[in-house]
Amino acid sequence: MNRGRAVLLALAVLAAAASLDTAPARAGVSASCRIPDVYLNLPGGLARTERLVDRNRPVRIYALGPYLSDPSSVERRRSRLQLELESRLPWMRFEFSDDPFGSGLAGTDFERIRREVARAEPDLVIWQVGTQDALAATDPDTFEQTLRQAAGWLRKRNIDLVLIDPPFVPNVAHEKLYWRIVGKIGEVSQRAGLNLFQRYASSRHIALQQQKLSAPPANAENRRVCMAELVAEAIVKAVTR
């Protein structure tokens, strides 16, 4: 082997080793939480978060809503989502400000987002939206306008956004109320190129799989675990592809 080829081979080996060092340490998704890959794709990308991950810089995340974290005890202040992200990207630091009192009406949540941006300047906003608007029978067009305004406001500030629609909860009377709001979130996201994690479709898929296996339906705690895993997986896929 001549000297030139030897140098190229050595460089190739070093490059491969470097890629192994920085490749995401996929924690995987629990068997009981698996969903089709299409539900894990965030089409709009997370440019700001991706840059921070590439540079090994801390990512500040503002998460609204009670479903991905458990604020009930001091020992569990760290969000489940934070733990899931760190298990996939263990060299990264994720600085969370959880807002368990969010996930109200979209207009109220938008006000909370603006206050938090002024206070903490997050890099990524994860917004669980739609449940209260569905139950309150918010006008779908008004709801759409609020989503568009919030998304545009964040985009102007180069802040990444992930929307999460309402959960599927089988055998409850208000389930049918979700349909028009879930549909509206999907329409707005598709037209405006927004990142939407389809919690409704994902949790429905998991419920149907459990039904096929004659397994007992997941309780609220298990649903939180699944959604934290799945949202983390979607975010990591978006910033490491």
Overview of this structure, please?
It contains nine helices and five strands. It has 241 residues and is α/β, with parallel strands linked by helices. The chain has a single domain (35-240), classed as SGNH hydrolase (Rossmann fold), CATH 3.40.50. A five-stranded parallel sheet has the order 2-1-3-4-5, sandwiched between helices. Strand 4 (160-164), helix 7 (178-192) and strand 5 form a beta-alpha-beta unit. Helix 3 packs parallel to helix 9 (220-240) and helix 4 runs parallel beside helix 6. The radius of gyration is 20 Å and the shape is globular.
Number of domains: 1
CATH topology: Rossmann fold
Helix % is 40-55%
Enumerate the strands of the largest sheet in spatial order, edge to edge or round the barrel.
2-1-3-4-5
Can you count the beta strands? 5
Q: So, the CATH homologous superfamily? A: SGNH hydrolase
Query: Helix-strand pattern, N to C?
Result: HHEHEHEHHEHEHH
Query: Number of helix segments?
Result: 9
> What general form does the structure show?
globular
